[in-house]
Amino acid sequence: MSVALTDRLDRVVGAKAADALEEHFGILTVDDLLRHYPRRYSQGMSVLEDGWEPPEEGEHVTFVDVIAKADVRWTNRQPKREFLVITLKNSKPKVTATFFNARWTKNILVPKTRLMLSGEVGFFNGTMQLTHPAFLVLEGAGEGKGSKSLAKIAETSREPDGALSLEGFQRDYFPIYPASAKVQSWDLYACVRQVLAVLDPIEDPLPESVVRQRHLMSEDEALRAIHLAEKPEDRERARERLAFDEAVGLQWALVERRHGALSETGPPAPSRDDGVAAAVARQLPFELTAGQRAVLEVVTAELAETKPMHRMLQGEVGSGKTIVSVLAMAQMVDAGYQCALLAPTEVLAAQHERSIRSVLGPLAMAGELGGADGAIGVALLTGSMTAQRKRQVREQVASGHAGIVIGTHALLQDAVEFHNLGMVVVDEQHRFGVEQRDRLRAKAVGDVTPHLLVMTATPIPRTVALTVYGDLETSVLRELPRGRQPIATNTIFVGQRPTWLQRAWQRIVEEVTAGRQAYVVASRIDEDDGKEPGRKKAGREPGPPVTTVVEQYERLGQGPLKGLRLGLMHGRLSGDEKDAVMSAFRAGDIDVLVCTTVIEVGVDVPNATVMVVLDADRFGISQLHQLRGRIGRGEHPSLCLLATNLPEDSRAGARLKAVASTLDGFELADLDLAERREGDVLGLTQSGRPITLRLLSLHEHRELIESARAFAESVYEADPRLARHPGIAMLAAPFAETERVEYLDKA
Ligand code: ADP
Ligand code: MG
Questions:
Q1: Separation of 318 CA from ligand 1 center, angstroms?
Q2: 43-57 pLDDT per residue, tens
Q3: Which residues in the chain are classed under CATH 2.40.50.140?
Q4: How far is the CA of 321 from the centre of ligand 2 (A)?
């Protein structure tokens, strides 16, 4: 039989096994199966399916071990029946297995027998128990005997003379596959062995020069070794090779998408000396930083092109991204186009409108009394507006009267039509999915694809920028405008030092007395609030009960902060209520804002100088960094206090100390990445399947990802249709329908 990677599996392993593989894992072809890589390798000892943690009740596990003890017992009830209990030798915690067909098994499963066991875990008095698991004797008197499912595997490797071949089982290492109760690791192992026995030599998908230059194992060797190599070094090299394949596949998909976008038609907007953009630049109350000027230079040039800009602007909180976007939008308006600025919350949208109006001054008052010549119409559209007001705004947008339209998700609705949309700015990108921003871009007239600028205050590690956001160019604003004060950050381990929290409240009182303002942040609104914890996956690190904003608001107002003016802010207030609280805080009529993470992004109150984060362990690294960015925005030194009930030597304690130790967002982003699982970073495909990076780690494989990117770019230049590199299309196939989603929302 001659078998190739692209062949369907039923030819090789039979219809029944092939159906099961398809149903449970979506595995259709030989290639799919061989890329269902082992999760790890058992070293002839106990192996739990799911990594290091003990399995939970009902989970499916597989062991390879030796029998330490075998006891025949009798059931209590009539009719009395014999059963066999074996205890494994090396497994910790202790593992026993029970068999009811003792009459047969007691002769086979005797002490010193080496065997595999596979079944559902139960617990009894702390002992892990498998009840009637599948088994296969690997060494001992009953060699080759076992339950049907496993014996079948031995069957499939019959010697030519018809004798059972145990070669496949007599080894030091076994691949352990991601498996299910219906298709166990052993079933996969059997299929893989069958396939590899008949597979033709695999052609290398990468050019020989690349393989040689990177000292890679050949594809043929790697796809075999990752499953069956006995030597750890060989498996390691195989993984390295296949990780590079994966990186190339992913980068090819992204490079192709980006070049596809580049071939679209964009709205050209050459910059002018006599327009609003130039006038705004002249009247700014401050000087742009070198970083802002550099980014603007690039953006200005790209907006003048007939290709749509596709750029992400990353900048530390407070680095002044907004003004960059305002000048870019003004350039578009000067050329006769409209711009949309999409903000994640109503608070932010309203704040943008206010700050854009104040930057533009009379230049934002088109058609209004005192408006300048050629002024821009600025409009705000949010969901909480009255229907009538919304209609008015929509008319201004449709007529083209509004040159800059700021809004929340409300902007995405079908009823919103633009006269001549030329640019979309998305603030705090991670709050929006790609499909949302594309929905907005689709509102352009004709075949024009608007320019796109996405702004994020979350520093994004290079590998994430290259993968999750791989189709966007990136610009970075590293420096903060002059005159900013540093933020000191301290951790408070409340359990160990309860008085420190008292001290924190005192600090707030002192700052307020000196004319400053403060934030107190909690992770939950009230007792009913399960939805607004910082970490979505609650229970990762179990801890003491979590406080709420409502509780704190009352407690602080009657106790430690008595006499100060407190405001309460959270996501369940109405739009009007939120506006009122934010305006009061901004105006200095509220001293202390007790709030949830609704204030996380973008809120700008320079007079706020202290922040106390309660249950700080509930938040991810990047999120804490974001929160902290709300202070230190004015001329006064600021203080951020991260309080937790967890002990200092917990994982959360270490995380908080890391946040306290640096203000460098990129450093923190790398730490954050190290803590996450890749799946959390990458999100889902369009069809809702999780994007799986099988071997590639965004945390560990930076060099590899960068060179895969460079390689993909060079191939695209020379051979965009892959006429000479057909193997790359195959590597890219799993990523072709990739849809990245919110990166940070998963923090
Ligand atoms: P972010 O990048 O976090 O969105 P903003 O755009 O909100 O930051 O800017 C923060 C503050 O800094 C705003 O009050 C803005 O007016 C001010 N700002 C921006 N650029 C400069 C600059 N070059 N010099 C001084 N202040 C600036
Ligand atoms: Mg901002």
A1: 5
A2: 544 444 444 456 677
A3: 10-211
A4: 6
- DSSP 8-state assignment for residue 644: E
Say if strands 127-131 and 95-99 run parallel, antiparallel, or are unpaired: parallel
Q: Helix 290-303 crosses helix 321-334 at what angle (to 10 degrees)?
A: 30
**E strands, 280-420, where?**
310-315, 338-342, 378-381, 404-407
DSSP symbol at 646? S
Reported as type and span, the H/E element at residue 82 is strand 82-88
Q: Which architecture does CATH list for 10-211?
A: Beta Barrel (2.40)
**What's 29's DSSP letter?**
B
**In 160-291, beta strands by DSSP E:** 174-176
User: CB burial class (10 A; 0-12, 13-18, 19+) of residue 693?
Assistant: buried
Atom of ligand 1 nearest to the CA of 604: 7
CA distance 65 to 59: 19
Q: Where in the chain is the domain with CATH 3.40.50.300?
A: 487-662
More confident residue, 459 or 454: 454
pLDDT score of 363: 87
- DSSP calls for 115-182: EEEEEEEEEETTEEEEES-EEEEEESTTTT-B-HHHHHHHHHT--TTSPPP-TTTSSS-EEE----SS
Question: Which run of H or E residues covers position 233?
Answer: helix 232-262
Query: In the chain, pLDDT over 90 holds for what percent of residues?
Result: 47
Taking CA atoms only, the protein residue closest to ligand 1 atom 20 is 320
> Can you give the C-alpha Rg of the chain in angstroms?
31
Which residue lies with its CA nearest to atom 9 of ligand 1?
A: 320
Of 3.40.50.970, 3.40.50.300, 3.40.30.10, 3.60.140.10, the CATH number of 487-662 is 3.40.50.300
Element (H, E) at 42: strand 40-42
DSSP string over 569-616: E-TTS-HHHHHHHHHHHHTTS-SEEEE-GGGSSS---TTEEEEEETTG
Tell me which ligand sits closest to the C-alpha of residue 318.
Answer: 1
What is the predicted pLDDT for the residue at 685?
46
pLDDT in tens, 348-389: 899 899 999 999 988 887 777 677 777 899 999 999 899 999
The CB of 288 under 6 Å from ligand 1? The reply is: yes
CA geometry: angle 332, 278, 343, nearest 5 deg:
45
| 343 alpha carbon – ligand 2 mean position (Å) | 9
Sequence-separated (6 or more) residues with CB below 8 Å from residue 535: 618, 619, 620, 747
- CB of 322 shorter than 6 A to ligand 1: yes
**129: Cβ–Cβ under 8 A, 6 or more apart, which residues?**
95, 96, 97, 98, 121, 122, 123
DSSP reduced 3-state for 454: strand
Percent residues over pLDDT 70 in the chain: 86
- Pairwise pLDDT comparison (485 vs 224), residue with the higher score: 224
- Residue showing tokens 């550099």: 294
Rounded to two decimals, the pTM is: 0.66
Question: Nearest 10 degrees: CA dihedral of 326, 332, 337, 340?
Answer: -30
Q: Which of 626, 635, 592, 620 is nearest to 504 (CA)?
A: 592
